[in-house]
C-alpha cells in the first residue's frame, strides 16, 4: 500500500513540474533546482496521494495520485496574498501617476520621458512597473504589454488607443485619469458599505451575551429568589 502511495506521489511530483518530459526530468535532477525551496504546487501535488491514502487506504492513494496534477495546477493558479496587496496598492497609485503623466505631456515632455519621470517619482510597486512601460515605449506603443489583470492595463490601453487613433495623448490621458478616479471612489464606497455588513456578526456575538447577562440573568435570578418554597 505504501509503495502505491509513493508511486502516486512520484507521478504527482513529475507532473507538477511545468514543461515537457525532458524538461521535467532535467528540472527534477538539477542541483540548482534541489537547492531552491520546493514550490507550493509541487508540495500540494505530492501530498495529495498521501492524504488520500491516509483517509481511504490504497484506493484513496490512487485517487489522490490521479487528482494530484489537478491539485498542483489549481494551487499554482492561486494568487499569493502579497501579490494581491501589491496589485491593489498599484491600482490605488495609478490615478495620480496618470495625472502626473498628463501634466508632463501637456508641458511638452515626450510621452516616454514623461512616464520615465513619473516612474522615478512614484514609490513601489507602481514605480518599477512604470519603468518597464517606459522601456517598452522606446520600441513602440504596441510593444507595451501589461496584461488584462495588471493595474497598468488602463494606461497601456490609453497609450495604444492614442497611437492608433490619432487622438491627442493629453486628452486620452485626462479621460483615463478621470475614469480611474471614478473607479477608485466607487471601490472605496463599496468597501465602506461592506464594513457595516462585516461588523454585524462581531457586534452580535458581543452584544447578545452582554444583553443576556445584564438583562435576562438578573431578572431570572430575581424571579427565582422571590419564590417561596
From TrEMBL:
Ranges that cross the membrane: 46-75, 203-227
GO annotations of cellular component type: plasma membrane
Subcellular location field: Cell membrane
Keyword match Cell membrane: yes
Keyword Transferase in record: no
Short name of any one Pfam family annotated for the protein: T2SSF
Membrane topology (UniProt): Multi-pass membrane protein
Signal peptide: none
InterPro entries reported for this sequence: T2SS_GspF_dom
UniProt name for this protein: Type II secretion system protein GspF domain-containing protein
Native organism: Aeromicrobium camelliae
